[in-house]
Each structure stands twice: as structure tokens, then as C-alpha cells.
Specification:
alpha/beta; 648 residues; 22 strands; 22 helices; 18% strand; single chain; two-stranded antiparallel ribbon
Length: 648
């Protein structure tokens, strides 16, 4: 106790931040720490109120939410450094008393203009009375009130503003009508000196009412303006459907607002540099274009963005033609500050896959060492070898979604080279928890600094083609016992319950802990594991989706989040995995699939009496049930016991 009292407040704050990651959001370890002494209680209070989230459930009664938040913050307003304001509405679900969350941007019966008229003065007044606020996240589907956009004053907080859903209402124009000039309200938002970050989900697209969005042009022009203070930009494009006559709409550019832009991109040809424009030095840029980003789109952003200052670049799915262009940019120093890169080559309908892989490898070789790399659809061991050789020792974050590449052998190679990886997102083959699968979890335990890992299980059986034709099981290729075996494999692979998810976490954490004991560290760092079965056709495309088996598998497939609750207790407790031991109590598991299962139950009951006898036979051979609900009889197959305690 005396030791805690003598610790500097900054150290106590770090302890509290560490304890906050336990027990999901209920912070039991933090509350227990607060009971130790008055000093610990004050540190705990600072930690609990440093970052807050205010959720608005009823837009017609914002004042009540503000009163509740004010009462909670009485005497604690000076602790708040980060605040997030979110809208969360629930609509009735006929299949459950729990209700179902509506889409974030869905405001039924409220027009874009009416959203502006919702009174948020009380909320803005509360925010302006938080003296230590440094970051405000506005996640509401309605515009931020003007009071939050004004420059900081000596009497008020000096915060940076992040807008999750930038919707400039005047930039939506009905098809066939002339584009209107940006109005004063949207002008204020886009040029606010507080605006640091925004996400725009429909930068160039039709909305639900058939209006065309001109956000792209306005944003690009604003970025070229000296008034702009943006550092982080995230935008989503949607390619218009062929049924819309969009060419005239896209070519009809809006006139620049007087005094806003130093030059108009729309008034000069593509790549025309005759008009000097200062390029914006962003920190991060995320561009998502469906179906895939082209070099033309990147060129358009290069006209106003200085790519050499980017720390993080997310391009989503990219056309193969873009990879050599990015390689040239990296070779000439145009990406010299880049530390995090995310992209997925569009290989689905491209013939020359080998050339694309070579271009991707060339790009990885000329980039400066990255701290974060997120690659999709690589399909190549050459890409894996290149990223290990060029970026492996420097990586802190890594995402790979190709199960053919990420085997247990390559996981051990990763642990040997990428010693600094803390966050890992991967896709692997699920093989029913056999020794090969368990070996993969042990390999992850060799990543000594690993704190968070997300595993997507690919349960597909591409070699089992012809099992299902037009929604029924076919006997052309497999006899009945073989068909039952394939169905059982599918059921076992997607059926992940709490006990299995916890065992996966413990296998990784215990390997990590035993290796830490060998080095004298004693502490293991794994804090979070997310496991989810991939939603896809298990026996090939098309025909499988018409089978009633798909409903059963979709309902059954698991999605779990496991977190350590060791806190300040003895880390050796994680090794006590006997039934009822401390290890299982130290891992909390949360089922993220409850909502989905609730939605599919109605379909399950509808098909219960008519389920294919082969599916029923496969189910009953795995999980016998007596009385009660047949759906509750299933349980996961345990991990291979002979491989659970492999030597480290």
C-alpha cells in the first residue's frame, strides 16, 4: 500500500490504462484497484473519465441525454480528454425482445434538411464546458452544430474534431438538375479550423432518393485551400449502376464558392500544372472504390495531396495497373514517409496473375520498411517471402487473408523474423481442431510481443465439388457415407462454442507464457483473440447457397471475442488449465453471433420438419439429443488433446 502511495501520478495513470483493457467494458480490475487507497481511487477516476462516449438514443429528447451526462460528469469535467458522440437507435425485432440496432445512417422519415433543424444546443454547450477536451469524435448522422466548429478561444477547450460521416447536405443534387453552390452551413463544416479528420461514405454516388453527391469535387477543392486543416481523410466511392444516366451528372461540375478555393480543379484539364496549387500534407488517406481503384483516381488525388507526407495509406481493392504506378512513386521518394499500407490486388477477373504478383513483390521491395502491412488476396508464397525479407523485422501490424499461404510452418517463420508484431489479422484453414491446427496456435505463441490476434477460419472444401447440385445432395460422385462425412466436417468446422474459443486463446497464451518463463520475463502479453468462421459457400459457388444446409451452417458458425482478465494477478495463473482452474476463469469470452443466430432462428424452425434426412443423420451422429430444443444439443469438438501441450 505504501508503495502505491509513493508512485508518481503518471505511473498510476499507466497502471489504470493497463487495467482498463480487462473485462471488456465493465473494468472490474480498475474498480478493485480504486479500493486500495485514496490515491488509487483518484487515479482510477482520471482513467475512467479520460475517454467518454455519449450515446443518443432519441433525437427528439437530446436534452435528457445531456442532463444524464452532466450529472455523471459533475466534479469530473476536467478529467475528460476525448469524447465521442454517437447515435444508436433500436427498432423492434419481431423475433426477439432484445431489439435490433438500426443502421447508423438510417433516420426513417427524417429528410436531410430536417436533420439540420434538430436542436443540439444543449449538447454543444456541455462539450464547450469540458476544459481539458483535446479530441471530439462526432459520429452522429446529422451535421455538427456550428458552436462546435468555431475556432478555439482562451475560455473554451482546444480540441480537434473528427467527423465519422461527413454529409454536406447542399452537395446532393437530383439527377437532371443543375448543381447548386455549396451553402454557408456546409462551407462552415468543410473549412472549420477544428476539423482534423473525416470519413465520407458517399463521396461520389447516388443516395437513396436518387440525388447525386458532389462531395468529391468539394473535398478535393477544399484540400487545395489554405483554410483547410485536415490531416486524416477517409472516403468511399460507389460506381453508379448502368441503369443510371450518370455521365452528364459526373461531367457537370459545381462552380467554386468565392473565396474558398485557391484554384478550381474543375477548371483545368487533368494533370495540368499551369495553375500552381499547394498540395495538402495529410497524415493518413483511405480511399475505397467499388469495384476497384484505378490509376486515374489516384492521379486525381495526387493533384491536391502530397503523398510523400503520408504515414498511412489505405487503397482497398486496387486494379493491377496501379501496382507499377505505386512502385514508381516509392522509387522516386513520393512515399518516403509511409509506415502503414493496406491494399488488395483485384485478381478475381484478371488473367495475368503472375505479372500482378511480380508487380506487388517489386512494390514491397522499393517501399521503406513498414510498421503495418495489410494485404488481401495475395495467393502467393513469393509475396509472403518478400514481406518477411523486406519488412519483417519492422512490422508491428500484419494482415493476411490467404489461408493457402498462412500455414503453421509459415507462422513459425513469421515468429522468427517478425519479433515486434503486436497485432495480427490472418485467415487460416479450419481443420476440426486437429494436430495441424493446434500447431498453428502454438506457432502464434512464439510471437513474444503479440497482444491482439484476429483469426478468420476458412472452412471451404473446394475439392468437394459436386456434393450439392441445385440445392439437393448428389449421389453422382459420393456415396451416402462420404456425403455424411463431408456434412459432418462442415458442421464441426463452423461450430465454435465458448469452451473451444477459450481453449484457442489459452493454447496461444500458455505457449507465450512458457517461452517468457524461459527468458525470465514471466509476463505474457496476449490480451485479445477474435475468431470467426468465414461466411462463404463451403462446397463451391452457386449451387450450395440454395441448400437448406446453408441456413443451418449460417446459424451455427461461431464468432467469439476472448480477452484476458489476469490484470495484476499472478501471470502463472494462465497455466492452471485444469477443469475449474484459474486459467479458464482468467479468460472472458463474448459471443458476437447472438444477433445473427436470433435472426436465423425463424428460418430454422421453418425448415425443421423438412430438413434433408442426410443432414439430420449427420447431425445426430455428432450430437445426440433427448428432450428439449435440438439446436441446443451441439457443442464444439475439443482441440486435439495430444497436441495441447507441445514443447515450446
Amino acid at each position: 500500500m505504501a508503495t502505491l502511495e509513493t508512485l508518481p501520478s503518471v505511473v498510476l495513470d499507466l497502471v489504470c490504462d493497463f487495467l482498463r483493457i480487462d473485462h471488456f467494458e465493465d473494468c472490474r480490475s480498475l474498480h478493485s484497484f480504486a479500493l486500495a487507497s485514496r490515491t488509487c481511487r483518484l487515479a482510477s477516476e482520471r482513467s475512467r473519465f479520460r475517454r467518454l462516449k455519449v450515446k443518443i438514443h432519441d433525437l427528439s429528447n437530446v436534452a435528457q441525454a445531456v442532463r444524464d451526462a452532466t450529472a455523471m460528469l459533475t466534479g469530473r469535467m476536467h478529467h475528460v480528454r476525448g469524447l465521442s458522440v454517437d447515435y444508436e437507435s433500436h427498432c423492434a425485432d419481431p423475433r426477439s425482445h432484445l431489439g435490433k440496432r438500426c443502421d447508423h445512417s438510417t433516420l426513417v422519415g427524417i429528410s436531410k434538411q430536417q436533420r439540420r433543424n434538430i436542436n443540439l444546443d444543449a449538447l454543444a454547450d456541455l462539450i464547450c464546458h469540458l476544459p481539458g477536451l483535446t479530441h471530439l469524435t462526432w459520429a452522429m448522422p446529422i451535421p455538427a452544430p456550428p458552436a462546435l466548429l468555431r475556432p478555439s478561444t482562451p475560455q473554451g477547450p482546444n480540441y480537434r474534431l473528427e467527423i465519422w460521416e461527413l454529409g454536406l447536405q447542399s452537395l446532393y443534387t437530383p439527377v437532371g438538375q443543375k448543381a447548386r453552390e455549396m451553402d454557408a452551413a456546409d462551407y462552415t463544416i468543410l473549412t472549420s479550423p477544428r476539423l482534423d479528420t473525416f470519413s465520407c461514405w458517399d463521396i461520389s454516388a447516388f443516395d437513396d432518393d436518387g440525388n447525386w453527391s458532389y462531395h468529391e469535387e468539394a473535398i478535393l477543392q477544399a484540400l487545395a485551400s489554405p483554410q483547410c486543416q485536415l490531416e486524416h481523410v477517409s472516403v468511399d466511392y460507389s460506381e453508379p449502376e448502368a441503369s443510371f444516366s450518370t455521365q452528364d451528372v459526373q461531367n457537370h461540375r459545381r462552380p467554386s464558392r468565392p473565396g474558398l478555393f485557391s484554384s478550381s480543379l474543375s477548371q483545368r484539364p487533368h494533370n495540368d500544372q499551369s495553375t500552381s496549387t499547394s498540395k495538402r500534407a495529410l497524415t493518413s488517406l483511405s480511399i475505397n472504390f467499388r469495384p476497384a481503384i484505378t490509376s486515374y483516381l489516384v492521379d486525381r488525388w495526387k493533384e491536391v495531396i502530397d503523398f510523400s507526407t503520408l504515414i498511412s495509406l489505405n487503397l482497398g481493392v486496387v486494379k493491377p495497373e496501379l501496382l507499377p504506378m505505386l512502385g514508381d512513386m516509392a522509387a522516386t521518394g513520393a512515399l518516403r514517409s509511409l509506415q502503414v499500407l493496406e491494399l488488395t490486388p483485384d485478381l478475381l477477373e484478371y488473367d495475368n496473375v503472375e505479372r500482378t504478383i511480380n508487380d506487388l513483390c517489386s512494390l514491397l521491395k522499393v517501399l521503406c520498411p513498414l510498421r503495418g502491412l495489410h494485404l488481401g488476396r495475395t495467393r502467393s508464397h513469393a509475396v509472403f517471402d518478400t514481406l518477411l525479407e523486406t519488412h519483417g523485422p519492422h512490422l508491428r501490424e500484419l494482415s493476411l487473408d490467404e489461408p493457402v499461404v498462412f500455414t503453421s510452418k509459415n507462422a513459425y517463420r513469421l515468429a522468427e523474423v517478425c519479433r515486434r508484431v503486436r497485432d495480427l489479422n490472418i485467415t487460416i484453414r479450419r481443420t476440426g481442431g486437429d494436430e495441424a491446427e493446434v500447431a498453428f496456435y502454438h506457432a502464434l505463441g512464439h510471437l513474444s510481443r503479440l497482444e491482439s490476434v484476429s483469426i478468420i477460419f476458412d472452412c471451404t472444401r473446394p475439392e468437394a465439388t459436386g456434393l450439392i447440385n441445385h440445392g439437393v445432395f448428389s449421389s453422382d460422385k459420393y456415396n451416402r457415407e462420404a456425403r455424411i462425412g463431408l456434412v459432418q466436417d462442415a458442421l464441426v468446422n463452423v461450430a465454435i462454442d465458448e469452451e473451444l474459443a477459450r481453449s484457442m486463446f489459452l493454447t496461444i497464451a500458455q505457449t507465450q507464457k512458457r517461452r517468457a518463463n524461459q527468458t525470465g520475463s514471466r509476463q505474457f502479453l496476449l490480451r485479445r483473440l477474435t475468431v470467426e468462421c468465414l461466411d462463404s459457400d463451403l462446397f463451391g459457388r452457386g449451387d450450395y447457397s440454395h441448400s437448406e444446409l446453408s441456413i443451418l451452417l449460417e446459424w451455427l458458425r461461431g464468432h467469439w471475442i476472448c480477452e484476458s482478465s489476469i490484470g495484476l494477478r499472478d501471470p502463472d495463473a494462465i497455466l492452471d488449465d485444469k477443469p475449474g482452474g484459474q486459467a479458464h476463469k482468467a479468460v472472458l469470452a463474448r459471443d458476437e453471433s447472438l444477433q445473427r443466430k436470433m435472426e436465423y432462428e425463424e428460418d430454422l424452425y421453418e425448415h425443421l420438419n423438412g430438413v434433408d434426412p442426410l443432414v439430420e443423420d449427420a447431425w445426430l451422429r455428432l450430437w445426440l439429443y433427448g428432450r428439449g430444443d435440438w439446436k441446443q444439443s451441439w457443442k464444439s469438438q475439443p482441440l486435439a488433446s495430444s497436441a495441447r501441450h507441445m514443447p515450446v
